[in-house]
Design goal:
About 40% of the residues lie in helices and about 15% in strands. With about 375 residues, it is α/β, with parallel strands linked by helices. It is globular. The mean pLDDT is about 95.
Length: about 375
C-alpha cells in the first residue's frame, strides 16, 4: 500500500475544512496521497495532520451562466489545466475526481495513456447540479461515467441520480456518508471558545449559514409569523450569518411585528460556531437546495434536534419524529407545525437531541476514510484479477 499513489481532484474546498480529518485517516493507510485543489478554506492550516496531502493547483473560479433565485446558480467551474503536468509527474494508480468538472474530463482523456483507475466522487443530487433538463450535459456525463471503475456517493439521492439518469450499475456505486463533521475538533474548539451571552427567551431555534434566498430563511420567518397568529411568542429565533437578503428579511419582520423574537447574530467565525450550537435548543435548516448541508450533522454533534427541509440531502440523517422533522421549504405552515411541536412539548428537545448525538456518533472522519480505502482496494483488486 505504501507504493500505491492516490490522487484526489477536488476543484475547490472553500467551505471544506471537513476534508482534512478524512485525509488524516486516509493517509495513515495510503501514505503516497496528493489532494489537488484550486482553493482551500479560510483558516487552512498546512501543519495539521492530513493537510500536508493538500496541494494548490492554479486557480479555480465559478463562471455563472444562469442566475437562480432560490437554487444554485448554474454555470461551470473554470479549473487550471496545469493539473495535467502534476498528474503526469505524480503518475497515480488511482484518481478520485470530484463530480464532472473539466478536471474529470482531462482524467478520462488521459486514462488510455496513463492507465490509472478512476473513482468519481459525487457529493449529492439537487435540481441545479444534476442538470437533468440538459440533454447535452447528461450525455457528456454518461460518457464520462463509462470510464469510471467506481463511484462514491455521499447520499442516497446521489446514488439514485447516478443509477437513474447516468445509468451507472449499482455494483459500481459505494453509497457512503463522507461529508462528515469532526466531532472531536468541534468539541475541542467549544472548550476554548468564549461562550456567547445569549440571554434569550427559550427555546432558541438556531439558523446558521448564508443569508440568501436559496437558504429559505424567508420560509422560516413566515413560519414565525404564523406562530404569532396562533398566539406563540415564548421562543427566540437566532440567525447567524450574513448575506444579501438580510435587509429584505428585516423589513418583513418589522411589517409582521415579531422583531422581539428574532436575534441577528451576524457573522460567526467557524471556530466559534460550536458555542452557538451549544447555546441553542433546536437547529433549523430551511434551504431550498443543498447537495448536502454540513450544518445538519454539525448540529447533531452538539446533541440538537433538527428541523430540516427536504431540499437538503442531509435530511437523510433525520429520522422523522426521533431526532427531528423534515419539511417542505415551500410550506411555511408545515414548518410552523413542526416548531410548535417543540413549543408544546419542550421535553422532546433533550430526548431528540440525544438521538441526534447517538446517530452522528456512527458517522466520523474514520468511517469516511474507510469508504475511500474500501473503494481503492476494490479498484486495485479488479486490476489484479484482470491481470
Amino acid at each position: 500500500m505504501d507504493e500505491l499513489r492516490i490522487a484526489w481532484l477536488v476543484p475547490e474546498v472553500e467551505l471544506g475544512a471537513y476534508w482534512q480529518p478524512v485525509l488524516r485517516e486516509f493517509t495513515k493507510v495510503f501514505k503516497n496521497t496528493v489532494f489537488y485543489t484550486g482553493r482551500v478554506w479560510s483558516g487552512f492550516d498546512p501543519t495539521l495532520p492530513g493537510a500536508s496531502a493538500i496541494q494548490l493547483v492554479g486557480e479555480t473560479k465559478f463562471v455563472e451562466t444562469q442566475k437562480i433565485e432560490t437554487g444554485y446558480d448554474r454555470g461551470f467551474i473554470a479549473v487550471s489545466p496545469s493539473i495535467i503536468g502534476y498528474l503526469l509527474k505524480f503518475k497515480p494508480h488511482v484518481v478520485f475526481p470530484q463530480a464532472f468538472s473539466l478536471w474529470t474530463v482531462l482524467v478520462v482523456l488521459l486514462k488510455p495513456l496513463c492507465g490509472w483507475k478512476i473513482a468519481i466522487i459525487y457529493d449529492g443530487s439537487s435540481p441545479n447540479t444534476d442538470f437533468r433538463d440538459s440533454n447535452f450535459r447528461t450525455l457528456v456525463r454518461r460518457i464520462l461515467a463509462k470510464f469510471a471503475g467506481a463511484f462514491v456517493a455521499n447520499s442516497q439521492a446521489g446514488k439514485k441520480y447516478l443509477m437513474e439518469v447516468l445509468k451507472v450499475p449499482e455494483s459500481k456505486i459505494f453509497a457512503r456518508t463522507y461529508l462528515v463533521p469532526d466531532a472531536e475538533a468541534l468539541l475541542k474548539r467549544l472548550a476554548t471558545a468564549e461562550p456567547p451571552k445569549l440571554d434569550l427567551q427559550r427555546p432558541i431555534f438556531l439558523y446558521a449559514g448564508r443569508i440568501t434566498a436559496r437558504k429559505g430563511i424567508k420560509t422560516l420567518l413566515e413560519a414565525c409569523a404564523l406562530l404569532q397568529e396562533r398566539g406563540y411568542s415564548n421562543y427566540t429565533l437566532a440567525i447567524a450569518g450574513r448575506g444579501d437578503q438580510q435587509e429584505e428579511l428585516e423589513n418583513f419582520i418589522r411589517e409582521r411585528g415579531f422583531g422581539d423574537r428574532v436575534k441577528w447574530l451576524g457573522w460567526v467565525d467557524y471556530g466559534s460556531l460550536g458555542a452557538y450550537f451549544q447555546q441553542a435548543d433546536i437547529f433549523v435548516f430551511p434551504t431550498f437546495e443543498d447537495v448536502w448541508g454540513m450544518v445538519v450533522p454539525e448540529a447533531m454533534v452538539f446533541g440538537k434536534p433538527v428541523l430540516c427541509s427536504n431540499g437538503a440531502a442531509s435530511c437523510e440523517l433525520i429520522a422523522e419524529g426521533e431526532n427531528g422533522y423534515i419539511f417542505d421549504p415551500n410550506n411555511p405552515e408545515q414548518l410552523a407545525d413542526r416548531m410548535q411541536v417543540f413549543l408544546d412539548n419542550p421535553n422532546l428537545i433533550e430526548i431528540m437531541g440525544e438521538k441526534s448525538r447517538q446517530s452522528i456518533d456512527r458517522t466520523t472522519p474514520e468511517t469516511a476514510a474507510k469508504a475511500y480505502i474500501e473503494i481503492t482496494s476494490f479498484l486495485m483488486k479488479k486490476e489484479i484479477i484482470s491481470h
